[in-house]
Design a protein that fits this description.
- The protein is an alpha/beta fold.
- It folds into 2 domains: 202 residues, Rossmann fold (3-Layer(aba) Sandwich); 158 residues, Glycogen Phosphorylase B (Rossmann fold), CATH 3.40.50.2000.
- The protein has 12 helices and 13 strands.
- The protein is globular, with a radius of gyration of 22 Å.
């Protein structure tokens, strides 16, 4: 009997940005279409008329509903509520119409605004949720501005979310640790993100260079990394740190100045168009994140033959790194421990080489074909 060729719809806000979610979705959709023969449609709400950042197969259909929720970014607080409710009504109507027209076998929500109503659309498809951030930080209401009212709202919001996730046929998260955090649900499985490229070369570990890749944002902990690097700089005279990513660098440049770190030994770069080259020209990868949904850059670095030093933050690094085998995990949020772990690898070329060799082997479990087969076995065949 011929294998069923599923008709699949993805719902996600946009594909014009160079984000990790956009990259992973594009990779998987291309692979499912090419290797499994699935009929795939991606439905967007943002970026009408903007080119897709990552290449997408011509056989994959893209529908932009042109809701433009991004308009909310410029609205006053009072106006924002009215504009949101209006746009949400339009979104529900347009998405419902498209799903009733397409009649997919499977609809996959990346758990943005459509999670509020996706289970109520009677198009006959099975509904899958795909979560790219750990539970503790999924639309987190807490943080520096947390207060009693926000805590109440946060708890109400989470109960409401759980009730919607419970109605999904499957909720796919990135790590076993995060799967265990959804104790109220019995429909959760974990499938990690795939490696985003197949390296054509690996590092020879000759360069006295540490590399970090990530947005210049609070969650990526670049401030913690710079503080750790100040300790390293005082202990190791001839290594340098290069950081690559999108975002505003100004606060981190100020921190470098405040700590009197030598500029040529701690360099902040924008996004690179050839991240593989940067990995290969480095000898250690460092992850200073306060939290990670997964840690795609860690996997990329390991595939290029780099040992990794990382905070043991929730939830991604521990699901990827085997401590003392292909990298080092240190106390979450502790710059001194991060610095000492970096120094230990800088001082020990034999350990760097041993961990790099292990990384090249261990990272194979994240190859795209391996992850695609997990989706085929755990999600598509089950339903």
């Amino acid at each position: 009997m011929a294998e069923k060729k599923y008709k699949i719809v993805y719902c996600t806000p946009a594909l014009y940005m160079a984000g990790g979610v956009e990259r992973v979705l594009t990779l998987k959709a291309n692979y499912f279409e090419e290797h499994f023969g699935y009929d795939i449609t991606i439905i967007l709400t943002e970026g009408k008329g903007k080119p897709l950042f990552y290449p997408l197969s011509d056989k994959i259909k893209v529908i932009n509903l042109d809701i433009n929720f991004e308009e909310l970014w410029t609205c006053s607080f009072i106006k924002k509520a009215f504009v949101y409710l209006k746009k949400q009504r339009i979104f529900k109507k347009k998405l419902s119409d498209e799903l009733m027209r397409i009649r997919p076998d499977i609809t996959i929500s990346l758990l943005r605004r459509e999670i509020n109503f996706i289970n109520d659309i009677k198009d006959g498809s099975r509904k899958i949720g795909e979560m790219h951030i750990n539970r503790a930080h999924y639309r987190n209401f807490e943080g520096e501005e947390a207060n009693f009212l926000k805590n109440i709202i946060s708890k109400w919001w989470m109960r409401n979310l759980v009730s919607k996730l419970r109605r999904l046929d499957k909720l796919v998260v990135l790590t076993d640790k995060d799967r265990e955090s959804w104790k109220e649900l019995d429909n959760v499985i974990s499938i990690p993100n795939p490696l985003s490229f197949e390296p054509t070369e690996t590092s020879r570990l000759f360069e006295k260079r540490v590399i970090a890749v990530g947005r210049y944002s609070f969650e990526k902990g670049i401030d913690l990394l710079i503080k750790a690097w100040k300790i390293v700089e005082d202990l190791i005279p001839d290594w340098r740190l290069d950081i690559f990513g999108d975002g505003d660098q100004s606060v981190y440049k100020e921190l470098i100045e405040q700590l009197n770190i030598e500029h040529k030994r701690c360099v902040l770069h924008g996004r690179t168009t050839n991240v593989q080259k940067e990995y290969v020209n480095s000898s250690i990868f460092v992850c200073s994140s306060r939290f990670e949904g997964f840690g795609l850059a860690i996997v990329e670095a390991m595939a290029c033959g780099l040992p990794v030093v990382s905070f043991d933050c929730p939830c991604g690094p521990r699901s990827i790194i085997k401590d003392n085998e292909d990298g080092l995990l240190v106390e979450d949020g502790n710059p001194q421990q991060l610095a000492l772990a970096l120094k230990s690898l800088m001082d020990d070329s034999a350990t760097r080489k041993r961990m790099a060799s292990a990384a090249l082997v261990n990272v194979r479990r994240f190859q795209l074909q391996e992850i695609a087969e997990k989706w085929k076995t755990l999600v598509f065949r089950e339903i």
